[in-house]
Amino acid sequence: xxxxxxxxxxxxxxxxxxxxxxxxxxxxxxxxxxxxxxxxxxxxxxxxxxxxxxxxxxxxxxxxxxxxxxxxxxxxxxxxxxxxxxxxxxxxxxxxxxxxxxxxxxxxxxxxxxxxxxxxxxxxx
Length: 125
Known about the structure:
By secondary structure, the protein is of the alpha+beta class. Helices cover about 35% and strands about 25% of the residues. The chain contains 4 helices and 5 strands; from the N terminus they run βαβαβββαα. The protein has a 5-stranded antiparallel sheet with strand order 1-5-4-3-2. It is globular.
């Protein structure tokens, strides 16, 4: 099994990672990844809907540390998106992004394993 291209990941909820960085006073820059992002929407159409989901790549600029991130925003309801961020020690390539996208389903499934759907249904009602 190949090692994943990212160092770590975090499900961050309904607030984008970039917003969390701003609230923490961490400066960052976003990249215009014209090759990787459209390729993800095309080659991983079963995961991402270009009209509803978001994919962004950036770099934290704090204290001279090279920390790159890829933020995936996936629409979960009519009015909410859920965000997951992946941290890289390099600018992720298109191939890195495709491999990362392929990890989404098992990571989501793994994080849902402890969720009791009956309890969620009762909380909603």
